Amino acid sequence: MSVMKRLSMIFKSKANKALDKMEDPRETLDYSYQRQLELLQKVRRGVADVATSRKRVELQINQLESQTSKLENQSRQALSAGREDLAREALTRRNGLNAQIADLRLQYSNLQGEEEKLTLASQRLQAKVDSFRTKKETIKATYTAAEAQTRINEAFSGISEEMGDVGLAIQRAEDKTAQMQARAGAIDELLASGALDDFTGQRDDIQAELDRMGGGQDVELELARMKAELGQGPAPQSAIEAGQQGQAAPAAQQHTQQLRKPGEGL
């Protein structure tokens, strides 16, 4: 295949595709229906013309028949008056008119047959046009419904794609939120353990020392508790209990001294 033929085929295919895209079946159907109406109108005008010609021939026949009747009467009158020559002339003219009437009757019969054919063709064409109009409206309604359904499906498809993008955005936002929450929790744990300094608080060196001492006492209490469970020592006492016992001993000594009498020794 030559280059020119290939280019011609490509251009034709492109043009055909563009025409298919531009063509609206509803407009094409309306145009076809309009053309059929025009053809039907032409057939009807043809029927009317033939009927007019037939009617004109009919009028001519009637006029000639009237003239033949008149010539026959004139021939009788001439013969009664002894004018055989005039009677013969009148009959001759009458016979000529009868020949014309015969030709006109043949023409009239032909026109009548043509009129009947055209009338039948017009009726058939009218039936086809009516049937095409019904089918045309049905196809147009179906096409319109299909077009609307296509637009709805395209809208749903666009919404689905948009919702997919929204879903991805939501997923990314949730992932970032989870990462921020995990990071905040880790920082809180580091601050609580002392691995990071909390510059937003009002802590000082004394508070830090007290916190360290408290942490050491907790370890000692846990070690004493484990020894007591193994039977290697008495039950441990917390710092509060030890403090209460320390306060109770001086109070007991003071109460004993108050009970003693003056001059009594220990």
UniProtKB/TrEMBL annotation:
Positions of the UniProt region annotated as Disordered: 230-266
Keywords: Coiled coil
This protein's record includes keyword Endoplasmic reticulum: no
Pfam families named among the record's database cross-references: PspA_IM30
Coiled-coil regions listed in the entry: 47-128
Biased composition (Low complexity): 237-257
Domain of life, source organism: Bacteria
Entry similarity comment: Belongs to the PspA/Vipp/IM30 family.
Official protein name in the record: PspA/IM30 family protein
Organism of derivation: Microbispora triticiradicis
